[in-house]
Each structure stands twice: as structure tokens, then as C-alpha cells.
Amino acid sequence: MPDVDQNSDRLARPLALGRVERDLRAENPDLDFYLIGQAHYGQAGFAFIEVYGIDDQATRRRIRKEASERLRECGFPVELIDTKDVFHVSPISPDEG
């Protein structure tokens, strides 16, 4: 992850999640879904990515996997650390940022 202070990271994660969500929705126009990230307190990146709006488990898992891979490519690792508390990260549209 890029070297950022805590305040800029508060925007960087939601913006990255928003870009990934926008791109995945554009590539899957037949699906109506949205992403919510979970992040560990005091850690860079994400703990887990949640996909809402898709009932089919296989499709939901595919979208989650693709989102996680793209976030890693953007410098945001996705790794769940057992026993660490998490908070939700809502995506911010790149147009809003």
C-alpha cells in the first residue's frame, strides 16, 4: 500500500473500493450489486469484501474474488486477521472524490 497517513487512508480505501465497484458493475451489467469493505483498525488495506444484491453464491463469490484481486493490484491487501476488530468501509464513487 502506498505510504499514506491515517487521514488520507480514510479516503483512499473508499475511493479504491468505489473504483473497483464501478468497474465490476460495468463488466457485469446484468448484475445489480454493491460492495462494502471491512477493514481492521490500525491496519492497511481491507479485512474482507462483502457483496450485496446477488443471491447466487457462486456468482457472489466470483465478484468478491475479483474485487479482492483488483484491490490488491491497487495496493490494498485483503487479508482477514483473526481476533482483530473491523469497521465497515463504504465505497465512494470516483466522481465524488
Overall tally of structural domains = 1
Distance between termini?
Answer: 19 Å
The structural class is alpha+beta
Largest sheet properties: 3 strands, antiparallel
Question: How do the SSEs run, as a string of H and E?
Answer: HEEHE
Q: Rough shape?
A: globular
* pLDDT averaged over residues: 91
Number of helices: 2
Strand fraction equals: 15-25%
- Approximately how much helix is present in the residues? 40-55%
Number of strands: 3
Q: Give the low-pLDDT segments.
A: none
User: Regarding quaternary structure, how should these chains be classified?
Assistant: single chain
With strands numbered from the N-terminus, the spatial order across the biggest sheet is 2-1-3
